[in-house]
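job 3f2a | input accepted
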Amino acid sequence: MTENQKEEILRSYYYTDVEPTLDRLIEVKDIVTSFEKEGANRLQYALNMKHINEEEVERFASYISNARIKMEKELDRLRDFEEHFNEDFATDHNDYYNSVEGILRHIRSHMSPLKNVLRKFCPRRHPTVPQCVRYGIQQKSVFEGSVLGNGDYANPIFDISSYPPAVKGLYTELRKFFDAEKTCMQICIGIIEEEREIRKDPERCKYLLDIYRQKSYQRFKNVMKAFSEDLINQFKSLTPAYKNYQNYESEATFAQGEYHKHNHADMEHFFIIEGFMASNDLTTTEKALWGYDKKIRRVRYVVSHFDDLLSADFNHKDMGLYEYMFCQWALPSNIKQAVEYFIQHYHGRHKVVKYAAANKRSSQYDKNSEKAKNFFSNINRLFQDSNDEDLMGDVS
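job 3f2a | predicted structure (396 res):
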């Protein structure tokens, strides 16, 4: 390697890429969090290392202040994103980004100035990726290399209070800046960790799938008849969600396996196919609530035989609780519409109660209570006694 090549390498930059992993987000959070404890010492060491004069300190403080204003606006948008992202079964750009990458695209106003701040206080410039490969040099990130990040530093002799007002002003701005970055990282990490927890729970995934299905049917219910069989067949061949659905044993396992793996257009097409294929005797409400899942037949059967599920000592004052238990079995994602469906289709011996009265019983509902266990056991027995293969089997 010639002296000119060595000089070229020394003038090269550290890389600023953020790997799209949860571990990397946690590492960034730890860096910005540590500034509260180590920031004053790191800043003094960095300023001395770079020989930055007072005028440049003031310009840098102004840059930090302006960046933080943009960050605060972005933080409001991020909080809105946090509220809705994991509640939506579908997400866009699934073929190109994982969830961390998707979140990073929402926090550019946070990441860009953070990279600039860290890069400004790297001990020296570092080779580019091609140069690292060419000369066998280990790559270095600004997050590990920067004195304001995880880079090495020496404790100063004097306290920061002994520095000029401009330096103390910069320190104040940087503390606010890193505190805003900390809040941002905490939100992002919370989103990803919640997504992971949802993926572990098939019932939660099924709940989110049902909510998404109901919204889709409401949008398409008035135009469903306009779709032709040829168009539906095209959708079948082009819709990944529909193809994947064929490989799952139940709605719950499909929901768990495909949560956050399809974009909105894909899931819309899936529900159009589902609605078109549904039996012609299904009502619009049934399609909206259950799609073409065979559970619709089971729900109908339970409603028509509801009186057979009641305990021998049944008292009408418990009707609300039994209706609520039915809704927990039939459609836990939408108790209100399940009650309305029950009221419309129940023609048994007892007087039904309306949603408000049934929903009040939610505080008394315990799926592990003897009353609930007996009720759900009676549903299983009802299906087994029917000798109907479509009703028998897994009734969860």
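job 3f2a | The chain has a mean pLDDT of 84.
job 3f2a | closed
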